[in-house]
Amino acid sequence: MRIVKISLLLAGIFLFNSGFSQSYDPEHVKAKAVKLYEQALDLLKDEQVSAAIPLLMQSVKEDTGFVDAYLSLAGALGQLKKYDQSVRMYERARIKDTAYFRIYALPYSINLAGLGRFEDALAAVNLFLTYPRLNERSIKSGEYRKKTYEFAINYARTHASQDYVFNPINLGDSVNTASPEYYPSVTVNDSLLVFTRKTTPRREDFIESRITPHGYAKSTPIDGDINLETNKGAISVSQDGNWMVFAGQFSNQAHISFDIYMSYYTPNGWSDPVKMGDGINTDFYESGPTLSPDKSALYFCSDRPGGFGGLDLYVSYRKPNGRWSEPMNMGPKINSAGDEQAPYIHADNQTLYYTSNGLPGYGNSDLFVIRKNDKGEWSAPENLGYPINTIENEGSLAVSADGLTAYYASDRSDSRGSLDIYKFALRPDIRPFRTLYVKGHVTDQKTGKPLPSTVELIDNSTNRALMNVQTDELGEYLVTLPAGKDYTFTVNRKGYLFYSELYPLSGRLPDSVYKKDIALQPVTLNAVITFRNIEFANNSAEIPVAGFVELDKLLGVLNENPSLRVEISGHTDNVGKPEDNLKLSTSRAKSIVDYLIGKGIAAGRLSYKGYGASQPVADNSSEAGRAKNRRTTFTVTGL
């Protein structure tokens, strides 16, 4: 009789060197049960697991003492991720012969872990490791699983969340098909879902579905030439929905491996794919691209030399001329000796999700999150935990702008075939920062024509630039911002005076939309700009820290226009003695001139004057009016 340890075969390892004592005797199994078992064995060898299971079930029905059939059935069910049924079959085999079962405690532990029973799994693998005749490979496999179970148990103890329920919802027939769907990505207003679908064994297509208040529209291939090439992979849409970046292996490319491409949305649909520069693409593998919400940073994975393992995460920054910088490895804190893949930067521009099979976790590839601090430094990776992560390979993750909903691909029991796109509520402690978004137009103040410009957003609490957004040809911009903070908007364009305005959003509700249209003044004689961030302390001429943001913008204008001359003017309200107000306003204007001279601007290009309360722009009878009158400005006095 052919008795082959199929449950071990399915586990992918050969566990021991030679035999062991047993009370179960395969030679006394009923002939009909053996025949069914051998038929199932042939199917299992051809990887027809589902077809083999009914034969194995019939085999143990014919002979309830047929331990090898129970073990093979348990292994087959485990391969189909039917962990609960697999565990029951292993336990039936254990009851029949405890000694014979002992060597199977490793695959049994894996299926226990598949159910989230990590303490039981740890006990089972510890039993397995006490077996005296394990070979080196078996010991290594057992120790690896033991480490993952111990991680899971410790994570559960330190991340207790009694209220969280993990309940992935299939996006349904409008999105999913019998073909595999994966790599989901969503726009900032959650209006567009894009993903990859494997339509044939050799073809992948990029698909989109509009997200409406009534659900997901019928998914369709993305328009344009973006789907002409067959060999493609990861795709990501920019937060504003105007750019797509993706990985592909095109027939006309110089490199033999996957490279990163970009496509732009136009009035006629998506443009022809443009291969990104040789700094980003190499002869090695590049994939998993994702753009920051301001489209100034590109994150991706590559196995190029100089990394810390197999695939590492890299970042490249867009320069003012539109070119991309030489990619930088994100470092050994984020990358491991294994593979890091599928980065996804959230709309808050401070939270990034990715997968790793080299960081501590549950086995295979897990999902992790890292966050930027106020200095722009990334935190240590945090495992998203069970049951988001499991003993299986976890794929890419995308998160909605509000941070509440995550999208991922899985082959759960209710899938339409293979991998489907699911959504689920993200656990509170691993959510990104709540955001709101601001949109508007930048125009010429005199003509009203749209101006492609650079919109920079400064976090007033840190004085750090949080985002740097380039408007499109129509002057339109859309930016997402972490809620609960106050910001300064600055806009720059050569030939124009900079624009700066405080935008107090700390009291605004998250997930809200705000509109801010901005008109830029051309550099003309007598043009006047009021500094919005320079609010001097009472009776002080010391420049406040927040004011240096605007002064540095003025420095840029002066350096771009070497013949430009300006007057810095100080103004007060009418409270106090006129002579004191005049003196204070003069001192304040002079302190700004001194700062500019200290930064290299020739003194002959600068003048200052204090006007006290003589030039009010609002009624001094109210505090609001007096606040407007307490201001500092600059005026173009020469071109």
Structure description:
- Mean pLDDT is 89; it is low at 1-21.
- With 639 residues, the chain is an alpha+beta fold.
- It folds into four domains: 6-158, Serine Threonine Protein Phosphatase 5, Tetratricopeptide repeat (Alpha Horseshoe), CATH 1.25.40; 169-430, TolB, C-terminal domain (Neuraminidase, 6 Propeller); 434-522, Carboxypeptidase-like, regulatory domain (Immunoglobulin-like); 524-639, OmpA-like domain (60s Ribosomal Protein L30, Chain: A, 2-Layer Sandwich), CATH 3.30.1330.60.
- The strands form eight sheets. Strands 2, 3, 4, 5 and 6 form a five-stranded antiparallel beta sheet that branches. Strands 7, 8, 9, 10 and 11 form a five-stranded antiparallel beta sheet that branches. Strands 1-22-21-20 form a four-stranded antiparallel beta sheet, with no helix packed on it.
- 24% of the residues lie in helices and 28% in strands.
Topology:
Elements: H1 6-11, H2 31-45, H3 49-62, H4 67-79, H5 83-96, H6 98-101, H7 105-114, H8 118-129, H9 136-158, E1 169-170, E2 181-186, E3 192-200, E4 203-212, E5 215-216, E6 220-221, E7 232-237, E8 243-248, E9 259-266, E10 269-270, E11 274-275, E12 286-291, E13 297-302, E14 312-317, E15 328-329, E16 340-345, E17 351-356, E18 366-371, E19 382-383, E20 397-399, E21 405-410, E22 420-425, E23 435-444, E24 454-459, E25 464-470, E26 476-482, E27 486-492, E28 499-504, E29 513-515, E30 518-520, E31 528-530, H10 548-560, E32 565-571, H11 578-598, E33 606-610, H12 623-629, E34 631-638
